[in-house]
Design a protein that fits this description.
The protein is of the alpha/beta class and 237 residues long. Helix content is 30%, strand content 24%. A hairpin with a 2-residue loop joins β8 and β9.
Length: 237
């Protein structure tokens, strides 16, 4: 079973340009994803796909294969599955192997729960699912505590009379830590271009992680949160 971890990072970003190279606790953000991928015991190989020369150099210095992402796959409208397929095909061409499972890791996620990559890979194999993603419980922003506003008039998004958190229906949100998908599902999606989630296949599973087990860097405040968590972890180790 050949498992390829694909780390994805673009130079451009409307919210926070070059976010994968932002400094974080004496390193840069993407370095942490390199760590996570290389620490995985179930990952056979790692490839980094990017249009950022500096990030590519950092990957190369870590002994990680990298592929230059074509311009049409480096825009803010390009899809993650298109970029992933390009990277998988390039890795297979270079090394003359066939990938069975693909782990998708965003380069702007410096914090993931220890061991979560191997957990997700194992879950995919054991369940024979098409994909596995990480989710975290919805907290204060639960749909039953959200409202529509017309002028200043409030109306509940979902009518209810719930006021205790314990009575809310358990719901979950994607946290962005990773997606693990079979190669078959990833490449079958090219036949369904209108469905941007087709690459996840029909049998989609989840593993649950705690809030703040993952930090996805999209804005400056996320960097502050990541720094606080990393500093706390260093003090408790």
């Amino acid at each position: 079973m050949f498992v390829l971890s694909v780390i994805l990072a673009r130079a451009g970003s409307r919210g926070l340009p070059n976010k994968c190279l932002r400094p974080l606790c004496g390193r840069v953000v993407v370095d942490y994803s390199f760590d996570h991928a290389l620490e995985s015991r179930r990952t056979s190989a790692v490839i980094f796909t990017t249009d950022c020369a500096e990030a590519a150099e950092r990957a190369q210095n870590r002994g990680i294969d990298w592929v230059r992402r074509p311009p049409h796959l480096a825009t803010d409208t390009a899809t993650v599955d298109d970029a992933a397929r390009h990277a998988v095909e390039e890795y297979e061409r270079r090394h003359r192997v066939r990938v069975d499972i693909v782990v998708l890791l965003y380069g702007n996620v410096p914090i993931r729960r220890h061991g979560v990559i191997d957990h997700a890979i194992r879950h995919l194999i054991e369940t024979e699912a098409d994909s596995v993603r990480t989710v975290t419980p919805v907290g204060k922003h639960h749909p039953d505590w959200t409202y529509r506003i017309d002028g200043d008039r409030m109306s509940q998004y979902r009518p209810n009379s719930l006021h205790r958190r314990q009575d809310l229906e358990p719901l979950y949100v994607l946290d962005g830590a990773l997606t693990v998908v079979t190669r078959d599902a990833l490449f079958a999606a090219v036949d369904s271009p209108a469905d941007r989630q087709a690459f996840l296949g029909s049998d989609r599973r989840a593993i649950t992680v705690a809030p703040h087990d993952t930090v996805d860097i999209d804005e400056p405040l996320d960097l502050c949160l990541a720094e606080a968590i990393l500093s706390m972890r260093s003090r408790t180790q």
